[in-house]
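Pair request: fold both.
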Amino acid sequence: MSGYEGFVDAASRLGVAVLVAGAAGMLLCVVALSAYTILRGRNTGRRGQVVTDHRWLFPFTSRSHQGGRAAVVSKRKILIEKDTEISDESLVDGTATVGERLMYFGVIAFMTCFYLVFVGIGLWMFKDFPLGLMFPVVVGFWFFGNMRTFWRDRQRAEARVAARRAGLPDPTAALLAEGESQ
């Protein structure tokens, strides 16, 4: 085997391993996150009710994209619903419980494993279809965009907690007001 063919063959074998590891990681994350939510989430009391929602047909559409048309009306029955909220401030200042921290990092681990599945598919497909390397690039925009948002939210929470401890006003309030005026 020549150098390039050997490289492509090794990348394909590595892709299968990354794909299997990513899929197994996703499965473990889903099981762990579901178990924690069922065991520790607060019951909202809406179990068994039929709820009528006014939703958009697609999650990323808005009234401006629809030409002012109303949202789609849908009915759904709530089989089970658990609710809890984990704030960035509680993660930063140490008031979040161990379970809340594990839930936060479990979501990040799930998203990372999801991205690794596409990296594995891209490497696996590289042997027969070199454009398969575009799979992780396209999904990478979504993944790294979310990671950047998590990081920025954490930095803002750290600034708010530091300002609160120092007795200063909230430094992110000016940023939020500036963003709303634009």
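--- second member of the pair ---
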Amino acid sequence: MRLSKSVAVALGLALVAVPAIASIKAMTLKELMAITTDAVDAKIVAKTTFKLDYPFEGAVYTRLSVEGTSLRTQEPVKTDIVFLGSHEPADQFGTSEMPTMQDTRVASEAVIFFAKDQDFPGRANVAYGLHCVYRVEEAFGAPVVIGKGEGFAFTENMKLADVRGAVRATHLELAAEQAGK
């Protein structure tokens, strides 16, 4: 009896010691753009939260109303983009790390990758993976996209002009690949 309890405890400890698998997938800019609908350079003009029982009961979302330019097509964009979670204490449904409050400040500029989610009620534009809201800050007189480190589309801080060029070039590359199929 004592031996079987020891074996059970050892087995339980071994299972707990197995490392967890990360939930954020590392992606290049091309991989990210292949699965998103658009990327915008936009000013956040409004920010609200709402409750929606999707994908589980009691979920809270943040809605960012944005105005700017599609980095894929260079066309004007005025839309709402949502993400799961809230920075409002009253909602009692926080985001743990991303996007940060700084990334989603009203009146700030951000580069946001999103996809039209066919399963989301109302088919909303959903910020891809929560980590695809990149804030833009002024540095040395030029707008700079704040990078997020290894495994993200922008690993380091980049001039906004360079980000625009990279996204546009990647869009054209993906379009050419699609046309060739």
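Observation on the second member. Strands lie at 38-52, 59-70, 76-84, 109-116, 125-127, 133-139, 142-145, 158-159.
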